[in-house]
Design a protein that fits this description.
Oligomer: single chain
Strand order of the largest sheet: 3-6-5-4
Number of domains: 1
CATH superfamily: 2,3-Dihydroxybiphenyl 1,2-Dioxygenase, domain 1
Radius of gyration: 17 Å
Mean pLDDT: 84
Helix content: 25-40%
Low-confidence stretches: 1-22
Distance between the termini: 25 Å
Strand content: 25-35%
CATH architecture: Roll
């Protein structure tokens, strides 16, 4: 499992570091129109989820009613959705955060109530760990090897 994860991540890093040339479809520039723009995480408890991400990573929020809050300070805009038909998961897309201090990030995650699912491990070009948030979403945090 770890071997496949490392191979997949190495492939992702290689693809991500490959120069992208703009492609035009009709009159739309693909690199401007198809970027990931927003991420929504389904949560089971909005209050505890907001507290977790604020404590672990310093995110701040704008509330849009009792079941939705957008977050800022995460490197990409997104939201926490407590009224979604989607359910928190360890089996969907993996959101990967970056931290300069990986060990410090892991301590913050644990202190905030996150559960480490894969301890820190090395892969070509970096190190990372996986965790679940209080709702059960699995995310990862990585850093470069220097």
């Amino acid at each position: 499992m770890i071997r496949n994860l490392i191979i997949g991540l190495a492939t992702l890093v290689a693809v991500a570091c490959t120069p992208v040339t703009d492609k035009t479809v009709g009159d739309k520039n693909m690199t401007e129109t198809t970027k990931i723009n927003y991420i929504e995480l389904p949560v089971t408890d909005l209050v505890s989820s907001k507290a977790f991400y604020a404590a672990a990573f310093g995110w701040s929020y704008v509330d849009y009613g009792p079941t939705y809050a957008s977050f800022t300070g995460a490197g990409i805009d997104g939201g926490l959705d407590a009224d979604s038909d989607r359910k928190p998961s360890k089996n969907g897309a993996l959101v990967v955060l970056y931290a300069k201090d990986l060990e410090g990030a892991q301590v913050s995650v644990e202190k905030a109530g996150g559960k480490i699912t894969i301890p820190i491990f090395a892969f070509p070009g970096g190190r990372r760990f996986h965790f679940t948030d209080p709702s059960g979403n699995e995310l990862a945090v990585w850093t470069t090897t220097e």
